């Protein structure tokens, strides 16, 4: 049996429905919303607590400051009560409150993190079905455009002076010299160094396992000299737990980011250009990766840096990806030491 077209509602029916909706106080937005009447819209105070427990430690560390500011301003308001204009106003307010520093970028980073912190909250609110995706106010506010980084590769002479001062001054020069060698040789980030454990050291193949931002994990070749230094550091300061942090103070306490602050403040006092240019550990990453790119090409520099290639260099990077052995060749040339995984080099 063939069914005919469904009859269209009459004008009288539509008028009756409109009158009923008006009497009930229901608007078209209520009908289109994905949030049901049984779902209670949480406040920012409530939802920040829930989201904070769901994100990674790195995300929490970056956004926690901005979530606290959001609590101070909107803590008792519901998620669906904030407009894109209010998000923009708050980002500009925080941008204007930034403490002026020599390396300040006009508060752009603070405004960017504020919008990012709100986008993180609303992304989970969309997943939870609390709001519709097109009702996300943070997604409608653009982040400030990032300025080009002022970091660059250090000249050989400057790098040598930094290592010399670190190894001859301070309350633990052996630790600081080891830190600088680790970052210079591997181009790892601070988080990767602080997360290093004894079980991450493959002494036979001269490899260390780095766990860095974005929950990335990779094996990075190191020189035999650095491997011996890391093993000796563990023997002298380790607690016997191979799963605990490797880098430690003399008293056995695990290293924290404060050691880096102390180190570069001390270097800046001895070398004024370090303080003036705001040189930090990340400059060592720039230095090493620039050297690798100049001598071994872009693909090997990307692998050396631990970049996964999903957001940079386009599709071509998929076909020119470098392997671990090519990175080992670069490490052997950088340190002027043989590496067991480098081609044509005898094992250490």
Description:
The structure is a single chain. With 348 residues, the chain is mostly helical. It folds into 2 domains: 44-140; 156-335, Orthogonal Bundle (hpI Integrase, Chain A), CATH 1.10.443. 52% of the residues lie in helices and 4% in strands. The protein has 15 helices and 3 strands. It has a 3-stranded antiparallel β-sheet. Helix 4 (57-74) packs across helix 6, helix 13 packs antiparallel against helix 14 and helix 14 (298-305) crosses helix 15 (324-335). The N and C termini lie far apart (83 Å). InterPro entries: DNA_brk_join_enz, Integrase-like_cat_sf, Integrase_catalytic, Integrase_recombinase_N, Tyrosine_recombinase_XerCD. One of its GO terms (biological process) is DNA recombination. Keywords: DNA recombination, DNA-binding. One of its GO terms (molecular function) is DNA binding.
Spell out the blueprint of helices and strands:
Blueprint: H1 11-24, H2 28-32, H3 44-52, H4 57-74, H5 84-96, H6 108-127, H7 156-168, H8 173-186, H9 190-194, E1 201-202, E2 207-212, E3 216-221, H10 224-237, H11 257-270, H12 272-276, H13 281-296, H14 298-305, H15 324-335
Antiparallel strand pairs: 1-2, 2-3
Helix pairs in contact: 3-4, 4-6, 5-6, 7-8, 8-10, 8-13, 13-14, 14-15
Number of strands: 3
Shape estimate: elongated
CATH class of the largest domain: Mainly Alpha
Structural class by sheet pairing and helices: mainly alpha
Q: DSSP strand (E) fraction?
A: under 5%
Q: Give the mean pLDDT.
A: 86
Helical fraction equals 40-55%
